[in-house]
């Protein structure tokens, strides 16, 4: 399955950039959690497991994987439903499967599975042009995990699935009129969705985003503190482990959702630009893999995986600067979180997989 | 063909994605640039406000001692519980919890917070001063539960007056600086400054310099580390001229006999104030931790006015004690000699009106010494008439009985001795010679403070130097005690003729040790020279109209002025007792003070207070017409 010559086509540059981001994340976790404690070592182990997952994802030809995508998809749906019933509860939501020493969050893996499923469905070579029927099925395939995950409830992760659908459908040739129509519907539907579709705490987060001053100590607190954290860092930052906002816990979950704020505080604008540059490089490099892909299946798979990743990166960094409502969305590769780390690295395994096999038949 | 088209479309849409992502990252970079460069200063300050707190370290005020080195005022540590509004998530919740755990009325806490609403931020608002240990413990426990990150418990030095109300009017009290004081003293809100007495007058010396401590706190308000600390500098030590034992003797006597009034004792040569008391007094400890409203209101509405310093703010008729001034003036002006005899048939007629002497049968022929001894009105009517009111005023001022004494205490009132000029100015009327006759025995429009009376006695005691009473003997700026030099007297120097001094002192000695009215002031072997006097509370005719008032309110005030020993006096002073009729009681107080002075000077055990004297005998004889002089 893994031919030796493929080894030479592995994109070591991309792996290097990804690992650099992981290292940056580890350093920030080390800083905010006060040294090499439990959180730090968990993240190190997760990185190791992630690299193994990446190795596995690289090894199996993505076309073989795609052939079994419907089984994989089905298995994932069963797993997600299982979580709803048997998962362990933390912070009011049921997202995790308790594996003893380790909690697994299946929804993190659902992104890659959905990307694979959509790529397979819309990218099969024998298909003629994209039909409305295809789009409808694709939307339905996305809706199922979306609804299940949203019920956990974990709206943040659920929303991450949507970019996968849109990007894959977009590159698969979704007519532009649909895109315009969707934009119009989105603009019109937003207030209605706000009114009826959201939980109170979600509404509160959005309304405080628009005017954080209205609740300086409640929901607006995190947002204001995020801005203070970032802004007080200045150009050069306060220095490693010298931050005050993260170190003294004015910014909550600093090692998790707000890890980028901590980077901005301690390493300043310089650190921010380095990290932004690395993410930008990783995304562009991965887009190259899509362009170079041997077939549509490969290209769509790369784009599907990348869509979720990019969306999450941009949203989290925007939120870290206090410029977006606070959602429980982690920053892939840097935030603390085992499942996210493993799933993201596995996703990059798929991207490497496609690029590596661009010359094979 | 289809594949090629497919490829082209994919390439186009990939480019669109690439550009969109590029723009997205560009905007993000701009956002961070804006926060971290353009708005950096503002956010930096906000971050510092988050985690840095500057705590004022209150400087202990200077310790105050008496002239013998006995401690009068010290400091103790107390706990203040404050709220820092800016660290509050929910001020209402904080107020509620704080009120609950400390057992303080929620309204009181809210009032403090509301009162300081407009003050500079990040300043702790003191909600509970001098918290009990139980309150401190329960608040500290809550802080650890992260329930009250915005509440601060601070240990602060607080003023302590071990002898409670002793010399309260002299020492004074402290309190939070008012708006005006913040300006004039150059202190910040919440500073404790002297508000009364020595505490106020010498506030700058006593106050010291507050220190500051800048600390880093975490999000639940726990102090993580200290960034910098400026230690507070304690205020200077101050030594008063007051003599603790004598002061206590005076107050004990007043208390034991159940009278109110004032006593002032001076050292005639220096003007040092040995005793300065005003009864009833207040407890300055009540003010040290912020006086509560009820206590303040009761102090202010009490009709005995405990806040008034009677020694420098109470004005009373001098009565017969004024005869000392008349005698001195007449001798100095050369109008009479001490041997001059005047016949007293029980009164005299001046300007067509009969003025009674207090002894109905008359004193017969008396010279000056015996006129003072017996307090003969007729003698002084005659001499006063010869002198005229303006000469009496002139010598009142020279001796220090008129105007202010100039003591280093605030709000002293002027003592009033009338003159033709004064009457013209005040009433736009000319002086009638008949009025002079009443003034000559200390009645009429005379109104003097006990302090000025004491100064007058000191001037006669030291032979003619009008001293300015002073309360501070020495300051300690950290290099040991440095005596305060008495400033040169601002009053024109003069000397009394030896025969004047001799005659007046002889008369005063006789009044105490002879057949005079001041026998209760006698101290064996100490040659006390003194004189009693009565200040009429109400004229005899007025008494008829003032029905409804209790007898006690209408009883006359009693004076006793003294110097001792007669030759070369070491102390001179006055005891004034409200409603203490004729000065008998005052002489008893003075006796105890004098005995205490000599016992202390000679290293003997301090005297024990004698049991209350029997009520004064009814000497007073109702005057038939006009003012009836009494001894």
How would you describe what is shown here?
Chain A is mainly α and 361 residues long. Chain A has one domain. Chain A is 68% helix and 3% strand. Chain A is built from 13 helices and three strands. Chain A has helices at residues 12-32, 38-59, 62-67, 69-86, 106-123, 132-150, 155-171, 176-197, 200-210, 219-233, 259-292, 296-320, 338-356, and strands spanning 88-90, 93-98, 103-104. In chain A, strands 1-2-3 form a three-stranded antiparallel sheet, covered by helices on one side. Chain B is α+β, with helices and mostly antiparallel strands and 631 residues long. Chain B has two domains: 52-240, Penicillin-binding protein 2a (Domain 2); 244-288 and 313-601, DD-peptidase/beta-lactamase superfamily (Beta-lactamase), CATH 3.40.710.10. Chain B is 39% helix and 19% strand. Chain B has 24 helices and 21 strands. In chain B, a hairpin with a 2-residue loop joins strand 14 and strand 15. In chain B, helix 14 (323-332) crosses helix 16 (377-387). In chain B, 44% of the residues are buried. The model of chain B is unreliable at 618-631 (pLDDT under 50). Classes of the chains: A mainly alpha (361), B alpha+beta (631). Chain A binds chain B through residues 129, 167, 170-171, 173, 217-218, 221, 225, 227-235, 244-245, 248-250, 264, 268-269, 272-273, 276, 279-280, 283-284, 287, 290-291, 296, 299, 303, 310, 314, 317-318, 321, 323, and chain B through 2, 6, 9-11, 13-14, 17-18, 21-22, 24-25, 28-29, 31-33, 35-37, 39-40, 42-44, 46-48, 50-51, 88-90, 216-220, 224.
